[in-house]
Amino acid sequence: MTFTAIAFAVLLRQETPVDIPKAELPSKAVCVICSAGGEDHGEERPAGGVRYKDKVFYFCNSKEIAEFKKDPEAYMPPVLPRLVPMLNLTDLSGKLWDEKALKEKVILVDFWATWCAPCKEMKPLVEKARAKFLSKKFEVLSISIDEDRSVLDKHLTKNKFANPVLHDDKQVWARWNVRSIPAFFIVKDGQVVDQWVGKRSEKELFAKVEAHLPTE
């Protein structure tokens, strides 16, 4: 093989998920599929593993390996910071949240839905974070992915939000690569500077927000 052919073959292997032999699996690891879905159950004995683009990924059951291989890029660690995806949604008060508006403050973007139990559990903590840091140019955007606007409106009559609420009627969640909810993004100066899915403790949430607020 020529040097070019060898280099191409190496690049091809890097671009293709390769199974890790059972004998090389660690005794404990975090499942990438569960973690991406917000199910933080910690380390456990992996059922399998894959190498992809010089990174290793582990799974708690063999079916998840096939799921990973369908779209491995979706499970790659996010690039941070990166330009914020397009939003251009109007909140229920009529304010347009576009590229300019997203640069006005440090913003916690929360993708949620009325049927999502973990989202409801996070709501009081998100409200506490907003109240604590509001004076430091901090805001929260709660973006509902409910398909039916009437369901959202009915929910809001009994569940009040102090922060802006937006209805995602343009499938913005797809541009933001939201795979499960609740999904959180911290936006600062027009860039996504942090992101995660699933529940977090009050201490963890406060620390993530405070890390990006302006220092006095």
Give an account of the 3D structure.
The protein has two domains: 73 residues, no CATH class; 129 residues, Glutaredoxin (3-Layer(aba) Sandwich). The chain is built from seven helices and eleven strands. Helices cover 31% and strands 22% of the residues. α4 packs across α7. The chain is α+β, with helices and mostly antiparallel strands. A hairpin with a 2-residue loop joins β2 and β3. The protein has a six-stranded mixed sheet, with helices on one face.
Radius of gyration: 20 Å
**Percent in strands:** 15-25%
Structural class from helices and strands? alpha+beta
Order of helices and strands: HEHEEHEEEEHEHEHEEH
Could you say what the CATH architecture of the largest domain is? Answer: 3-Layer(aba) Sandwich
CATH class of the largest domain: Alpha Beta
**Strand order, largest beta sheet:** 4-11-10-7-8-9
Low confidence ranges: 3-13
Terminal CA distance reads 61 Å
Relative helix content: 25-40%
Number of helices: 7
Strand count: 11
Largest sheet: 6 strands, mixed
CATH homologous superfamily title of the largest domain: Glutaredoxin
CATH topology descriptor of the largest domain: Glutaredoxin
Write down the overall geometry: globular
Count of the separate structural domains: 2
Question: Whole-number average pLDDT?
Answer: 91
